[in-house]
Design brief:
- This is Taste receptor type 2.
- Helix content is 79%, strand content 5%.
- By secondary structure, the protein is mostly helical.
- It has a two-stranded antiparallel ribbon with strand order 1-2.
């Protein structure tokens, strides 16, 4: 079992992370709603940002509720009528946010890179147009990937009898068991494929922008340095997406590949890493989007002056 100091740290971390995640994701939602109220249509990246914020809020709330149940009512976590839909919905939201991040990187790659290959030209012309219409099918596909958890997930429960004949509460130790073939297949479709899309998009974008920046710097074209800096910021944002994607994919695959136990401290640590995902993603989006960053900074300064 985790020591008391570990639980205090985990609870404090969870509260701060949940509050930060809610603020960042709500900020993206507010920016999108303001655009809609002024009669503006959300372009594909703004729409993806909006959907990502909604999914992250739902995912964060679900993860927090699981943590509260784990602390206050752990026996409920091992009831099949509860843990099956809970795991299925959690996996659906995780896979959906992974795929949304992947398509966001694909969109950036298509709009930033200047490649004359026929397939790239066709993708640049069609994917941004039809991407908003693909989002409902993307959500349905993630749900179908997670649906087999109804038959492939089980729980092994160990009941500890009262000690020395006393009427002490009976402690429940539960271990989740996932069928390896399903977990490997679902992880490949839900994690590995979007990761490959992110990797290819980022490598293509970084290499294209690097060639462009080097060519402009060696050419007396009068290109402003501010445009060079914008390209460098774009590369940094894409690399941040790649870095945080790697860490969370490894955590997701390792968590569901083993049999997590309620007494294993790794379960708490891994769950806290899961809770970081809905916080890190909007943070990267806001810092990498000049419009959102300016709006966020301006509002923050306004609140500081009011205080």
């Amino acid at each position: 079992m985790m020591p008391l100091i570990g639980w205090i740290f985990a609870i404090t971390f969870g509260v701060l992370d949940s509050g930060t995640s809610l603020i960042l994701n709500m900020w993206i939602l507010v920016a999108g709603v303001q655009n809609l109220r002024t009669g503006q249509r959300l372009n594909p990246p703004e729409l993806i940002h909006f959907v990502i914020a909604v999914v992250n809020i739902a995912l964060q709330g679900l993860l927090v509720s699981h943590c509260l149940l784990f602390i206050c009512l752990p026996s409920l976590l091992f009831v099949k009528e509860f843990y099956v839909p809970a795991i299925m919905i959690t996996l659906t939201l995780m896979y959906l946010t992974y795929w949304l991040t992947a398509w966001l990187c694909v969109y950036y790659c298509l709009t930033i890179c200047n490649i004359n290959h026929p397939f790239f030209v066709w993708s640049r012309k069609n994917i941004p147009t039809y991407l908003p219409y693909l989002l409902p099918f993307l959500a349905a596909g993630c749900f179908l990937i997670s649906f087999p958890t109804i038959w492939t997930t089980s729980v092994t429960i160990t009941l500890q009898p009262p000690v020395n004949g006393t009427r002490d509460p009976i402690f429940i130790r539960g271990t989740f068991v996932f069928q390896p073939f399903y977990i490997q297949s679902a992880s490949f479709i839900g994690c590995c494929v979007p990761f490959l899309l992110i990797l290819v998009s980022i490598v293509t974008t970084v290499s294209s922008l690097s060639r462009h920046v080097c060519k402009m710097r060696h050419k007396d074209s009068g290109l402003p340095r501010s445009k060079d800096q914008a390209h460098i910021n774009a590369m940094r944002t894409m690399c941040r997406f790649l870095g945080f994607s790697i860490s969370f994919y490894i955590n997701e695959i390792s968590f569901f590949s083993k049999s997590p136990s309620s007494e294993d401290p790794y379960l708490v640590v891994s769950w806290l890493i899961f809770m970081l995902f809905p916080t890190a993603e909007p943070l990267i989006i806001i810092t990498g989007n000049p419009k959102l960053r300016k709006h966020f900074t301006g509002r923050s300064l306004w609140f500081q002056r009011k205080l």
